[in-house]
Design brief:
The protein has 8 helices and 23 strands. It is of the alpha+beta class. It has 4 domains: 99 residues, SRCR-like domain (Mac-2 Binding Protein); 90 residues, SRCR-like domain (Mac-2 Binding Protein); 106 residues, Immunoglobulins (Immunoglobulin-like, Sandwich); 66 residues. The strands form 5 sheets. Strands 15, 16, 18, 19, 21, 22 and 23 form a 7-stranded mixed β-sheet that branches. The longest helix is centred in the last third of the chain and has 29 residues.
């Protein structure tokens, strides 16, 4: 009976608080939470008429006022048609907020309406959520606080991991790993109605005002930051292919895969995972100054594949891990290019030498007198070509071409 009374009282308190803090002039619809969606403004209180707002009439300062009025954090995304388009009516007066107002309708606005508002221009707004973890080395660990008009810690009252999973999910921090009690002086807190939280509602909708000296310290699975991975080489270096995460190293060169992470907690280890087309290998080193370096003495085709770093850490009586992005590595073999660059000039040089001696040998077989005649008559012609003609006349016994001088005619002409 007492539990039923308590649930009724929680619902009653929740409805009162919600009615107090919920704005009655602005709302975000079709979003994923109360802090995201398409902006609508109530333009007629008597008939409950809501209108969308044109993007051209809305700026960052206006967004700050709306997020504050909704009890959310600072605006993070402001974009037209982000949460779907809407048919008229659309509010066309320009808001002129200074950023300090407590409500959007408290801001000044332009005196005249716009004639048109282009399709796809309804304001879509995302504010930061009203849940956070403070006091930890990561945004996914610390004292749980909820903002419902003001930030307050959440009281500890036999929180289960299932119940805490709602907070981790809302924080985009994975799943709940541990819940602990923190003791402090008595102060105002938010009590979270368990059935409401486990139903999938956001925590600010499940909060009731209370006071307590014990607060909830929550640790979520995505505790660690993402580690970094990089590659360096002993030769010219590495090259990035087509602005993608594909790096090239030269065959035979030393290269190093480095894993690192921003300082959060001491200790830990790095596991380098290498996956090729037909096998998978892993190497492990302790984290020294939050980094580890894996040296490969000579690059070869077997080193081509995908590499990733996984950081492992034991903290808060649990094992945590975080994986880096994937880095793809290819090995460039320069040996065929080097061999080609050496052989081609050598082959060309040998051909020139052979041609030179061949031409000299052929010219040495001609009579001296005929050489002079041929040189005077055929200047400008390739020497080897003329030598071939002379060889036909004198060495090979082939008859001269039709119209050319015969041996007798040559003798008569000499007389």
């Amino acid at each position: 009976m007492s539990s039923v009374v308590n649930d009724v009282w929680c619902l009653f308190s929740l409805s009162i608080v919600s009615s107090i803090i919920s704005p009655d002039s602005v709302r975000l619809v079709t979003g994923t939470s109360l802090c995201s969606g398409r902006l609508e403004v109530k333009t007629n209180q008597s008939i409950q008429r809501w209108s969308s707002v044109c993007e051209d009439d809305f700026d960052q300062q206006d967004a700050e006022v709306v997020c504050r009025e909704l009890g959310c954090g600072a605006p993070s995304v402001l974009q037209g048609a982000l949460y779907g388009e809407v048919e008229p009516p659309m509010r066309t007066k320009e808001f002129q907020c200074g950023g300090h107002e407590s409500a959007l309708l408290d801001c000044r606005s332009s005196g005249s309406d716009r004639n048109t508002c282009s399709p796809g221009k309804a304001v879509g707004l995302t504010c930061s959520e009203s849940v956070r973890l403070v006091g930890g080395a990561s945004r996914c660990a610390g004292t749980l606080e909820v903002k419902q008009g003001e930030w307050r810690p959440v009281s500890y009252s036999d929180w289960s991991l299932k119940r805490a999973a709602a907070a981790c999910r809302e924080l985009d921090c994975g799943s709940a790993v541990s819940v602990e009690r923190e003791e402090s002086s008595d102060r105002s807190v938010w009590g979270i109605w368990s059935d409401c939280a486990e139903s999938g509602s956001v925590l600010r909708e499940c909060a009731t005002s209370s006071s307590s000296s014990s607060f909830l310290h929550l640790t979520c699975s995505d505790l660690l930051l993402q580690p970094n991975i990089s590659v360096s080489s002993s030769m010219v270096g590495v090259s990035e292919v087509d602005q993608q995460e594909v790096f090239q190293v030269f065959w035979g060169s030393n290269f190093t895969i480095s894993c690192s992470i921003q300082p959060q907690y001491p200790g830990g280890s790095f596991q380098l995972t290498f996956t090729s087309s037909d096998s998978t290998h892993s190497y492990t080193q302790p984290a020294v100054n939050h980094s580890a370096h894996f040296l490969f003495p000579a690059a070869e085709p077997a080193h081509q594949g995908s590499y990733s770093c996984v950081y492992h850490l034991y903290v808060f009586s649990h094992n945590f891990s975080s994986e880096s992005r994937v880095l793809s590595l290819s090995v460039m073999d320069l040996r065929p290019l080097i061999i080609r660059a050496i052989l081609l000039p050598l082959i060309l040089l040998v051909e020139i030498i052979v041609l030179y001696f061949y031409c000299r040998a052929n010219r040495g077989q001609l009579p001296y007198k005929q050489k002079n005649i041929d040189l005077q008559a055929n200047r400008g012609q390739p020497p080897c070509r003329q030598n071939n003609i002379e060889l036909d006349y004198y060495n090979l016994g082939v008859p001269a071409a039709e119209g050319g001088p015969t041996e007798e005619e040559g003798a008569q002409g000499a007389e």
